[in-house]
């Protein structure tokens, strides 16, 4: 979808009971909390430990965080992305896809670039240490929904 094709939602005449303020966090179980922390801080160097305790950590910035719970003996998840019900990937908007690519290469993190969306400069797909798929998106400056 390009900017000229953006469809604006209809605004209801009645006031909704509540509205979304922002997306706050994602809660993930992990086998290795330290490996997850290191990985996400490579991707997002501005992220810091917002709170932590025995076996858990909130890692993020002032707007968003990932809540990590360490379960070293947990079985690998049975969800198959795009083949079963559940989350397929988590998308993060970034400001500089080329810089992220350099960071990934310097850190020997495998990734794939997809160039099939006209509203984006760059879409990078990769997996975190627990095989959760991530999408890092850099939108075109003119795209109104970025």
TrEMBL record:
Classification via Pfam families: Glyoxalase
UniProt xrefs under SUPFAM superfamilies: Glyoxalase/Bleomycin resistance protein/Dihydroxybiphenyl dioxygenase
Gene3D superfamilies associated with the record: 2,3-Dihydroxybiphenyl 1,2-Dioxygenase, domain 1
Residue stretches making up the VOC domain: 22-139
Regions annotated as coiled coil: none
Database matches in InterPro entries: Glyas_Bleomycin-R_OHBP_Dase (IPR029068), Glyas_Fos-R_dOase_dom (IPR004360), VOC_core (IPR037523)
Residues spanning the signal sequence: none
UniProt name for this protein: Bleomycin resistance protein
Species for this entry: Merismopedia glauca CCAP 1448/3
